Amino acid sequence: MKCPFCKKPQQTRVVDSRTIKEGRSVRRRRECLKCKERFTTYEELELLRLTVIKRDGTREEYNREKVESGLRRALKKRPVSEEQIEQLIAQIEYDIQSKEKREMKSRTIGKIIMNHLRDVDDVAFIRFASVYKSVGSADSFRKVIQDVMRDE
Ligand SMILES: [Zn+2]
User: Fold this and answer.
1) Which whole number is the average pLDDT over 108-124?
2) For 113, which of 21, 66, 84, 98 is 20 to 30 Å away at the CA?
3) What is the pLDDT of residues 50-88, one digit of tens each?
4) What separation in Å is there between the alpha carbon of 1 and the centre of ligand 1?
5) Are residue 68 and residue 116 in the same domain, yes or no?
6) Which residues are close to ligand 1, an ion, with C-beta < 5 A?
7) How many CB atoms lie within 10 A of CB 117?
8) Residues 144, 83: one domain?
9) Cα of 7 to ligand 1 centre, how many Å?
């Protein structure tokens, strides 16, 4: 990455990143490790093409922003870096892609997210699982937790 202040390729640290434009690009706030100046980059994302079948049966296009905001809510004030969040999203999308499906139930995506989240942070995992199951009963919530725990 070329630092606009040093004008040379330097190592940078990502201090903040947000997926924008309906999940089509990511805005990253970077800090040059050499001169400590901060700058912003806009990077295009490879779009994951997938139709999501929602709980009520309606369909919508997969949107990275939605996955990211759900993750950020769950990870709020948890000790995870921007790099970890980005890596988490990349792993989730890689998993979805590797199933080679054109349509996927939101429930299946939720499980994939929970599987990865569990590896990163227990508290965030429980938070996400409870929001995700908010429409169901306590029983079905428990079942989902058990399901996720089981299919390692
Ligand atoms: Zn610099």
Assistant:
1) 91
2) 21
3) 999 998 999 999 989 889 999 999 999 999 998 899 899
4) 10
5) yes
6) 3, 5-6, 10, 32, 34-35
7) 24
8) yes
9) 7
